[in-house]
Structure formats: structure tokens, C-alpha cells
Amino acid sequence: MNKHVVNDPRTLALDSLRGLVTSHPDLELDETYRVVKRGSGTSRPISEKVQLVSGGGSGHEPSFAGMVGTGLLDASVCGNVFASPNVGQIRRGVELVSSGAGSADSNKGVLMIIMRYTGDVLQFALTLEHSRSTNPSLPISLIVVGDDVSVTRTQGTIVGRRGLAGTVLVHKLAGAMAERGDDLEAITTRLNGILGNIGTCGVGLGHCSVPGSGGGDGDDEEEQAHLAADHVEIGMGIHNEPGVLTIPLTKASELVPRLLEYITSTTDEERSFVPFQHDGKDEVVLLVNNLGGISEVEMGLIAREAITTLQGQGIRVRRVGTGKYMTSLNLPGFSLTTLLLPRESDTATGLSSDQVIELLDAPAIAPGWIPLYEPRELSDCLVQLPEKSATPATASKARREIPFAQDGSTLFSDAVKSACESVIQAEPEITKYDTIAGDGDCGTCLKAGAEEILKAFDQGLISDKDVPSAILGLAEAMERVMDGTSGALYSITFNALAAGFHNQDIKSGPTAKNWAIALSHALESLYKYTNARPPSRTLVDPLDAFTSAFSESEGSDLDGAVSRAREAAEKTKDLVAKAGRAAYVGQETLKDRQVPDPGAWGVVKILEGLQKVLSDEK
After folding, report:
1. Catalytic site includes residue 24
2. Are 69 and 335 a contacting pair, CB within 8 Å?
3. Binding residues for substrate, per the UniProt record (predicted)?
């Protein structure tokens, strides 16, 4: 997607920072140099803590400016999109957090934390050297984070590993140590000791689009040749740099373990950077980072797969954070980061595993910081429902049973199964219509209900022996998986259909006339809860047409009733929607494309499935 909401791409970085500080009262902005800093009322005096400065190119929000706040950064220096800030900006950032320094004894100093990219390293290193030569009384140090495990040792011989989302964990550790009063040397030493324990691997489903560049939507031939629509790229950089491996898009349960293998492997001479021991005692902090274009519903799945994969390897996940920590504009992708916690024998960090966790748990308030939490076993998170005293198949035993006309007949189950198979087969067609006329889920919703009904039959939860019980079994199966408007409408209809038989005096089993009366009762009940009336371009159009025709013939003309329903569904192609999601869609577009209402089409497919068995029976 290469569309962006901007005023001027050249001023986007500054415009964004203006919005950030005006909506967060604890932040201040130096517009000239694009430096965001903690407000004077929120930061401890300079003489009491080490001041933390970070930064880099814009486009990675909430990093870096969004990580300015209590317990995190004191200032962020922001370059243009994907461009490192210049030395003048960085000097200004250092000046803003160190102003008022008198001597080394009265100032705790400044620690700059950056990602390993050539421009950032050169500009911040130049600032470091300039400060040491012009202000020798100011203690100042530089930490360079390189956590990308997709870059091989051979590739990184000169430039080293790139910095990725693991940098955010370094910000948090540094911020917590600074807040508690650790000195600059101690913080620098501990962080340098822990950098080798951080590994990150990302994957892109496509490229991001840089505002003003006009690219990134995958339409140009060069990009399509680089990454096909059904492929993903492992190791894609956060500035659209090519990855290290292109593979077909696969399930999350296969993709996530593959990324983690890059991080946790100890047998790959080129990529085994993190010293895992795989002896059942490894402990990690996990960061599941959204690179900008992955939906939150997918992120939940990815987080779950990452946790279970690590646990399956005998690796304990002490803390997990999920969300947008470091993005790449709108890149559709995610990255996984693990911080391997130190063991007692690991003296390089000067910290124990519990001390690292304590630092990560320390209070922090910043616009972009998402707290880390201790993951729980899924079984501990599930609501425990009381055991049912009876299954749907036997739940109606207390009621008067209304048997089918022929003892041992499977006509009901045969007809319902045929209807389910008809819906499942028609799912792509219904989904196509709903993608145009609605939100695209009608076909999959109906398919899920049909599959659940078939499963209920296989499990013996629906029986041919008792009419109301069997129909309620259908309703309960659908209620387990069908949500939204369709699920509610079908549930109301089937529950009312079952009740329609209780209102009749049937001794030897329901006749076609009894079914007609029950269907009319169901339709009347449904109309109590929806204002849709034919013609309305909804599922009630064919449902009403079928019920009316079936009732008029007292159940003797099933084929005619199905034909009437089909005609009603066909007519929805030319109707203006009065209800449902299609009411919000351009009506002329629907007419021009001759798109029938998806819900109405689903009703027809159900009826055609029933007709296939019941007409043969006649």
C-alpha cells in the first residue's frame, strides 16, 4: 500500500513530532533540530542520573521518540524518514540533556544508544569525539546495538550485525539502571556485556512504502520479481533492505519456529550468535514486534506460536511483550527478539537473571512503551465452564418427544448433511459476493456452521429420533462457531423452528403440513428481532419467499418453494440494500456487477441441499 496521509513528505518527520509532543504533556520538542526530550517537570536533576540519548531515522515509530519518558530515554534525535540524524542534531540532543553541567563530579554523564547502521554509527561517533574534545568534563559514552541474526558472520565481517527491535530492550535496561542511580561506567559495562545475548530475526510479507517515493505497493515489475505475492522474505531489513531467504508463505506454526531457529541455533557457524545451551535451563525475554502492517489479531497468534515454540525447546520465557515497538513504516511483517538471561556463571553482564527481570519490570512511562508480562499457561487463562448434565442429543428427554414419521429413518440427517455439503461447496462463491457487498466473512461463517453441524452428527450430538431435539442440536452447533449477524439470525430461526413443533399436536410424527406451520412460526419469531422485510437485499428475501410458498401448498410443493426462494435471491442483484452491511456499500456498484446478497445466496444453497435429498425421497 503506497498511499499516505501527509501534508508534505519533506516535513513529515517534524509534523509527526509536533503531534507527538502536543498530545503528550511530558514531552518537549526542539523544532530546529528535531530533538524530543523529557519535560523539565518529569526528569530528575542531571546531577542525579545518567542521561540517555538515542535516535535514528524516522519511520520506526514508536522508536525512538516514543520511548522518551520516565524510566526510559531522556531525549531522542530524529532524522528524516530512514535517514540518520546529522551531527548538529545529535550535539543539540546531548546539549539539551547535559546543560548546566559544571564538572564531572556534578554530572552523571550521557549515554548514547544507537542501532548499528553506518550513518548512525558515524554521526553519533563524531558527536562522541567532539564532546570529549570540547567538553572533557562531561562523561559520555556510546552503545551500539547489533542484534540481527540473519546477517551472517561473513556478511558482517566489516559492518557487523544490524540493529533491530532488541534495541528497545537495551533502552529499557539502561533507563531502569539510570533511574536507580547507577553511574555511566557501570551502565555501559553491563549493557555491553548483555548485547551478545540479544538476537532478532524478522520477516516481511511485502515491502513498506516510503512517503513521497511512490513505491512499495508491489505493482512495479522489479518489486514483483523480487518478492512474489505468495512468498515472504526472512531477514528483510527495516529500511526495505533485501532479506537473506525468500520462501513460500506458510502457516504461522511453521514460519515462527523457522525464525526462532535462526536465533536459538548453536550449530550454524554463520548465525549462531546467542550462546544458548539447550540444556533445559535457558531463560529468555521475548519481544514480538509488529513491523507496522500486521493486524493485531495476527499478532496474538504469532505471540502464542513463539511462546509455545520456545517452551517446546525447553526454553523458559520469563517475560513477553507484544506490539509495535520498532516499525518500518507500514511494512507488513514482524520480528521476534529474545534476550537470553545470564546464568550464575556468566560474569560478563554483572547482572543475574532476576536482576535483569527486575530492571525490565521497573516502572516506565513513555508513549510507545508496552510493558512486558510473565506468560501464563493457556490452561490457567481459560474460563472453566460447569459440566453439562446432558448432551444436546439427550437434553430434551424431559420434554415430550415428537418422533419422526418412520422409526429408524435417517431422512432428517441425510437432508441436513446434504444442505451442509451444499454450503461448504458454495463457500468460495458466497465469499466472493460478500467481499464486494459486505465484509467478506459470510461464506466462511456459513461454512464453519456447516462443518460444526457435520461434526455434531459424527459425534452423536444430533439424533433423528426427536424433532425438537434434533433442531436444537443444529442451533447449538451453529452457536458454537457462527458469530455476527448471520449467526444470530440462524440461531433465532432454528430455536423458533423447534418451538414451532411444540405448539402443534403431533402424535405419529410431523407431516409436511406440520413443517410448514413450524417454518411460519420461525419466520414470525425472526421478524420480532429484525426490521428487514422483503424486498430488502438480505437473507430474509429468499427465506420469506420459501416459507410463504411452502405454507401456501401446506408443504406439498417443496420444489416450487425452493424455486421461489431462488428467484428472490436472484432479484437481490437489482435491489437497493435496506439492511445489513450492504446498505453502506455503493449501490450502483452492486447493480453494475450484478452481485446478489451473499446471505440470500447462502439460504438458497441450504435449500438446494435439502431439496436434493427430499425431492429424491418423493
Report:
1. no
2. no
3. 57-60, 120
